[in-house]
User: Fold this.
Amino acid sequence: MTATFAILKRELLTYFVSPLAYVFLGVFLFLAGVFFYLGIALTGEASLRVMMGNVSISLMFVLPMLTMRHFAEEQKTGTFEMLMTSPVSPVAILVGKWLASLTLCLLMLLGTGLFVAILAYYGEPDWGVIATSYLGLFLTCGVFCAGGLFASSLTDDQVAAGMGGIVLLMPLWLVGSASSLVGEEWQARLDHLALLPHLRSFTKGVIDTADLSYFALLTFGFLFLTFRTLESRRWR
Amino acid sequence: MIEVEHLTKRYGAFTAIEDVSFSVPKGHVLGFIGPNGAGKTTTMRVLTGFLPATEGRAVVAGFDVFEDPVEVKRRVGYLPETPPLYRELTVGEYLRFCAELRDLPRADRLRRVGEVMERVGLRGWERRVLGTLSKGYRQRVGLAQALLHNPPVLILDEPTSGLDPAQNVGVRELIAGLAGDHTIILSTHILPEVEALCAQVVLINKGKIAASGTMEAVRAQAAPAYYRVSLHAAGVEPAAVARAVGALAEVKVVQPDGEALRVESEPGVDPRPAIASMAVGRGWGVSGLERTIPTLEEAFLSIVGREGA
Amino acid sequence: MALSRQWRRRLAYGGNATLVTGLVLALLGVVYGVADRNRARFDFSSDSANQLQPDTLKKLELLAADGQEVEVIAFSSQEGKADTFFRNRAMKDLLAELDVHSATVKTRFVDFDRERLTAESLGVTEYGHLVVRRGEQRVDLKAREIFRNQGTGAERSLEFLGESAFSRAAAQLLSNRRKVIYTLRGHGELDPDERGPGGLSELKALLDQENYELKPLDFFFDRERTGAPTVPQDAAALLIARPKAALTDAEEDALITYVASGGAVGIFWDPGAPLPDLVERLGVTSPEGVVMDKLRVFPYNDRPVPTYGGHAMVEDLREERIVTVVAHAAPVRVPEELPAWITPSTVLRTSRDGWIDRGGVLDKGAAVYEPDIDLIGPVDMAVALELSPGQGGLVNEGKRVSRVLLMGDADALSNMIMGEGPGNPSFAVNAARWLTWDDARLAVVGKPTRVRRLALTEEDQGRIRWLVLGLLPALSILAGGAVWANRRGR
Assistant:
């Protein structure tokens, strides 16, 4: 627990003492701002639904860039060796890093609170829907951070880790719109794998245990794979 | 304190180390020498629990590395070849992080960080960013990190590589000061360092132990002792002198060595009495009969050269 | 000990590790499968917009009972029209909910513009249409049954009634029992089997689609009858379409008995035709004369354009401004004072310029209002009455409310006018629905989904753009710059 927290603190410190986190925050808030503005300008609705869908897709590209250094850089600079020779289980390291990127995500989402304030000032948003939307987006962040970590654990090249993360996560988006390739029948099945159909429940105000388990299991799966990769880096 | 038995580590078809066994008593300093790629780093990684061995076992500070890796890691301070630093952090931030990582009691953390910084000569460097430090200072931070939890066992992979001579001496003194309280394994290229610090040496080559034991033993194992014999025989050809010495039953090999002769014998046989009496019998003067032990460097070269050729 | 160590190493490393990893991932898949089949859903939207109503869920359950697949095919709304975005989204949301709550429902959202072929193969010619199919059965829901615009300007709102529409369709799929509407015969009534202009064959076909069966009821030629004539037990309603001769006493009695037991009767007549006693018993009269109006269906002189009253059966038609045509209609007069057990409601009446023409001169072939002869309007042409049981009324205590539709024009149902009046088919079907208590299919009930509009002026938009695209990112970049400069100084 102490170790997880130590790693979480260290990662956050690293984020915030380098310009990296701020650039990310800036880029993300700008993208989200574009989607938010377009959403309300085109539909004239006091809601974040248009933004949520688009933001989740842009996170798919942004978050692997955020997590790419986690293991790749540690492998490269040798700090990974220090972590692994400390009396700390790999799981604690993994969870610490995952929580660190998730904390940054939380800050990013907190930044979009301005949008909610704008909606509340000019209109009457549905607070229940906004709350569940944010929950859904946060869970999405959890999946993407775990996937990005997995990609990062596979290589010691940061750029490859970032790109790999995007390539790894992309199918979660693409399988949701493959109906023209595989037909309606299979699309219905693929929708179980796709991220957006699960996120959609949240963005319309519904919390479904099946959707919750989708996000939880996917996150766990990626973290588990990362764990196995870290282990295997020692014997391969 | 450290027991290594028949350790073997394979990466697929490649064997990094094979059947490595040695032990280090408490408070001793073991020098780990060998050419690059001999398996030093691999052995150290196995001992620190970073790599699992394919076969064999290693017990460090009373715990099996494979069975109780966490207990072992608690008792080992490890300085990898390149100091494991986060470039963005300051010295203080980094060491405090390491202290937390090693699970030092909250109350002790700051005190230990201060002590260790003092010890490695980093006083007043707390707020410096690691990425801007020189190689020597990075090495010191790395060492500080290994010492933080006051581990009974220290494993240092090339602690002096890349340092200037003055820094070198500093680190060497530091390690000498640590011996006694800590059991230390030290790998290095710099043989004088080993001679200065280590009571015990393991010479590893191509993944196998080529020689091990006390300094003398290793030297003797690597290249047997020989004798420098200086005889003064007026009017006799040096070649004839050499032949006369070589004719003695106790002498195995005779080679000219400048003005003198280099004489080798079977192990355990001292040819000096025979040579002396022979010289006295012929009326030759004897100005030197010295037993010479080869330097570590000679031993190293003789082994690496012998097998590496 | 040595063996177990070896074994543990094997499990943790190498090929076995891959196997273990694979097994764990497969297990995750299984867990998801279980979670997908046993889900709990909680709707947190403030008006529970996504929560399907218990009634709908019940119907989905019933539909799933025999395992037969139910196809729900929704068509997109027209691109570029106001609210298309909301319409499509609301529809997709509904489809998702249906999908989640039923194993047998297969939903599909079809882009009407891009997938013309699908639309054609289903015979759909309208944006925003919904088709619900099960086996041979098929129910079509029109866009205007699903979407409804309310108010104008800033008050404008879109109501989405998709769930109730689907619910109705499901009810139709579920009701295997066709309701029987008896049509009285034997007095020269309009004949459901007659295909000529004066017949009701089109009405019969129309009602057949809606799962109603028009069955003739002939008190004279009923061979199985013993004793006095009665309306059969299975009658959902009785239709009397312009008898040319008066009913016999026995028949009148049968009719009264039927109403007394809570039966529903629709009586249609034309000027001059005899009326059953029942009408009189209700206090309703049909004064001599023909209903006229300055608003007439061109080029006819005897076809006033009726306006719709407040009754539920014509709500949709009034909403959509679809005209029902009547020809040569007789007035229906409901007295000001009615007993408490009768609740009247106007269905069709003339405009304010209508009157009852009782003869006089013609102007270019058309009747004109002559105050000394004619009776001033507006005049009712169709009236719906609900007769509460008891209270000294016609309907017996303990029976259900009896519904009676009285209309001074039978031609409106005939093949001749049915094809001409744009609203006549809906009017006829709605009349049948009302009489048979299929109100759910008539007045769409259920919760409409509201769109939360954001009214922004140009200035507001500019301000928001600046805040969102400029200030927020700039702040974070600035913070980054400050930290970087601070660190670099060390």
Notes: The beta strands of chain A are 206-208.
